[in-house]
Structure formats: structure tokens, C-alpha cells
Design goal:
Oligomer: single chain
Strand order of the largest sheet: 12-11-8-13-16-17-18-19
Helix content: 25-40%
Bound molecules: cytidine-5'-monophosphate
Largest sheet: 8 strands, mixed
Length: about 425
């Protein structure tokens, strides 16, 4: 189960920066519920929080009363972070007020609480705010000092919300219970190539042989790698999804184009993740004009054309073959398996792992309503160097991506 984070947002202009913090949290696999105050919603609307978190947004104590949200959310959270925390929010928290959903949550939370204040310097330095911060810190609330710099107007001074990455690092540290956890930046300096989506092999100008891959898992893998500081090339085959911020996108259609793009991108890279569903075969002949049916209106005419196929190169196997003696890049393959009645998905994946020779293999169970196009995934991650299997999911694809990068980072540091 992913850890649960409540992201409280109070009404300051820095609320827009909480959107980036939210992305860092979701892309690292946390389940985030955003609780904006009424004033925060004047800066950033509920639709933005819902879309970015992938969860309904809780705004007041009077919605879904039968579920007692003002108690439940706080009790079940692993971390509450409020960013930005205004002078008013600090005052209400310090005095134990419970006049909206967020302050109710602060009173019911048993977990670590982090407040990231943002306000004008005068408000931050006012004796009332200074006393409120001291009170909160005396109760073990983690109040992050605001940064100095340009404020909303032309003035400068202490009061700026720290950068989302800095706040995220504090959250991550508290969520890991002080254990060493990969921080954003843990892939910094690393060059990563991710392929995603499904290839289309054209028969004629209007038809192709394709597959059901939506690209969601590959895009999540690229997004998490960027959040951890990697330089990411995303080779994308026929995906209709927003491109994660910060990746370099190369769009392709066919297996041959994908192979060419990956081969070019892998020069000097540290990791290749082949998440794309690549067609093993393509039509032997491409018709320049639309193939016409040969039968007329006669229902008894059973004639049908035969499509001849030829093999596509196995890109993953080619990467393994051409890898130099230094052991880089780390090569990650995917195996979409349905099981075959005799062997389980994991058994089939082990056989494929032997055949493919990659360093890590992500095996997932697929079927008409499983995995493809879904937001969640369940996988076995097989690692060659120490012959280990890590399970991930059922969990959002971002969370599975975070577990995969944890594994790959271990392989990188072991190698
Ligand atoms: O053998 P199978 O197609 O199931 O292997 C899947 C893995 O191999 C995926 O990582 C996929 O991206 C990769 N692959 C490839 N080239 C192909 C077929 C699959 O790189 N022609």
C-alpha cells in the first residue's frame, strides 16, 4: 500500500508552487489527498488539485459527512504537509482552532506534520507569528524556515516558500522514518532512455497492426526519473498522454523507427528501460494505396487476403549484444504475460529473462481488462545480479515506477 500524504494548501500566492510539490509526491508513489482552504481555492482551483493528485479533493467538513472526513483523513495519514502555510494558518494551528477541514486534520493527525510558511517578511517577523511558530515547534511540528528572496511584489526579504524539491526532501525523509530513501536528485547526472507505448506496423495508408499499450507505465517511469534528477529521453510510440515535464521526446510509429531512435539515444547513457510493446513482426509488403476488398455483395464469397509477415529485430536483445565491457547501460526489459495454464506469469517471465539477457525484467500480467490502459499495475521485478524478485502493486503506475527506479538505482550502485 502506498503511504498516504495529506497536502494542505492555505491561501497564499505560493499555492501555485504546491502543484510542483504535489507532482513530486505522486511521481514518487505516494497517495496524496489535497486539502485546500477556502482561500487557497481562490489561487488554484479544485480541478487542478484533483487532476494532479488523481484523487478527489476534500475542501470542507460538510462534504461526505457520513465518512467523517475531518477525523478519518488525519488519523490515517502517514504525513501531513501544509505548503504554503500562511500566517493565519500558523495562528489557527498554534491555537488548536478547528474551523475548517485542514485545521481539523491537524488536530487529528498522529503522524509527522510539516508546515512550510510563506508570507511577507513583516508578517513572518511579527511577534505573534514568531510565538506561534515557537509553540508549534515545541509540539514537534516541523516548521521549515522560509527562504529569502523576491516576494510577490517588488520587495525582497525572508518569507518565500522554499523550492518544492526542498520541501519534498523533508517529506521524504520523514516518510522513510529516517531510513535512507532515494531523494530527488538521486538519479542526477544519470542519462536515461525510456521507450513507451506500442508500435504500429502499417499495411497500407489507413491500416496497421498494433497493440493495446497505452504508454502509461512507460510515461510514469520517465516522469519519476525526471523527478529524481535524471536527464531523460523518452522514445514514444503512438501515445496520447501529456508528456512529463523535462523529458526530451522522440515520437515514432513503427518497430524499425523505435529501434533506430533507441540506438541513437543510448550512446553514453546509464540506463535503458524498454517499456514499449514492440511488434515482433511487420507486414512483408506495404501497399502504397488502400487495399481494396476483393468480394462484392455476395455473402457466400469467403475469399480473404493473406498477410505475410516478416520478423522485426529484437531491439532489447540488440542492446544486450552491443553493450560494452563497462556494464553500462543497465538494461531493463518488460514482459507482458498472460500465463498459459501450465506456467505462471512469473515462471514465463523467468524463462524470458534467461533468453533476453537484460539486467532487470519487469513482468506484468496482462489481459483484456488488466494493465493495458489502466492506472494501476502489479509487477514482479526480476534482478539478475543478485537473483532477486521485488513485487510492486497493485498500485498506481507512478508507484510501480518508483519501485522500479529503487531497484535500478541499487543495480547502478552495485555495479
Ligand atoms: O519477447 P517479448 O516481445 O515479450 O519481450 C518484451 C521486451 O522486449 C520488452 O522490453 C520490449 O520492449 C522488448 N522488445 C524489443 N524488440 C522487439 C520486441 C520486444 O526490444 N522486437
Amino acid at each position: 500500500m502506498p503511504q498516504k500524504v495529506i497536502l494542505g494548501v492555505s491561501g497564499g500566492i505560493a499555492a501555485y508552487k504546491a502543484c510542483s510539490l504535489l507532482r513530486l509526491l505522486t511521481e514518487s508513489g505516494y497517495h496524496v489527498t489535497v486539502v485546500p482552504t477556502a482561500a487557497a481555492l481562490k489561487f488554484v482551483g479544485a480541478a487542478t488539485w484533483a487532476a494532479l493528485s488523481g484523487n478527489p479533493v476534500s475542501t470542507d467538513v460538510w462534504a461526505d459527512v457520513h465518512e467523517v472526513p475531518h477525523v478519518r483523513l488525519g488519523q490515517h495519514a502517514d504525513l501531513v504537509i501544509v505548503a504554503p502555510a500562511t500566517a493565519d494558518l500558523l495562528a489557527r494551528a498554534a491555537h488548536g482552532l478547528a474551523d475548517d477541514l485542514l485545521t481539523n486534520i491537524l488536530l487529528t493527525a498522529h503522524c509527522p506534520v510539516v508546515l512550510a510558511p510563506a508570507m511577507h517578511t513583516e508578517m513572518w517577523e511579527h511577534p505573534a507569528t514568531v510565538a506561534n511558530v515557537a509553540t508549534l515547534r515545541s509540539r514537534s511540528v516541523r516548521v521549515i524556515d522560509p527562504a529569502s528572496g523576491r516576494l510577490t511584489g517588488a520587495d525582497t526579504g525572508q518569507g518565500r516558500l522554499p523550492e518544492p524539491e526542498e520541501i519534498f526532501a523533508v517529506c521524504r525523509e520523514l516518510l522513510s522514518g529516517g531510513q535512507q530513501a532515494p531523494l530527488p536528485g538521486s538519479l542526477s547526472g544519470r542519462r536515461v532512455v525510456v521507450s513507451a507505448g506500442g508500435t504500429r506496423e502499417p499495411l497500407d495508408p489507413v491500416r496497421f497492426l498494433g497493440n493495446r499499450s497505452s504508454g502509461k507505465q512507460g510515461y510514469a517511469i520517465a516522469g519519476v526519473a525526471v523527478a529524481r534528477g535524471a536527464e531523460v529521453v523518452l522514445v514514444s510510440a503512438n501515445v496520447a498522454l501529456p508528456v512529463p515535464a523535462g523529458v526530451s521526446l522522440i515520437q515514432v510509429q513503427t518497430a524499425l523507427e523505435l529501434g533506430e531512435a533507441v540506438d541513437k539515444a543510448v550512446q553514453d547513457c546509464d540506463v535503458v528501460v524498454m517499456a514499449a510493446a514492440v511488434a515482433d513482426y511487420r507486414p512483408a509488403h506495404y501497399a502504397d494505396v488502400k487495399i481494396k476488398k476483393t468480394f462484392g455483395l455476395d455473402d457466400n464469397d469467403e475469399s480473404a487476403p493473406t498477410i505475410q509477415l516478416v520478423r522485426n529485430p529484437d531491439i532489447l536483445a540488440g542492446l544486450v549484444r552491443s553493450r560494452g565491457p563497462a556494464g553500462l547501460p543497465v538494461i531493463v526489459g518488460f514482459a507482458a504475460e498472460t500465463g498459459d495454464g501450465e506456467r505462471t506469469v512469473l515462471e514465463l517471465a523467468r524463462e524470458k529473462f534467461l533468453r533476453k539477457g537484460c539486467d532487470v525484467l519487469v513482468a506484468n500480467e496482462v489481459g483484456v481488462d488488466k494493465t493495458f490502459g489502466q492506472d494501476t499495475n502489479t509487477v514482479h521485478i526480476l534482478r539478475r545480479d543478485i537473483d532477486a524478485v521485488t513485487q510492486a502493486g497493485p498500485a498506481p503506475k507512478e508507484s510501480v515506477a518508483a519501485t522500479l527506479w529503487d531497484v535500478v538505482q541499487e543495480v547502478l550502485s552495485a555495479g
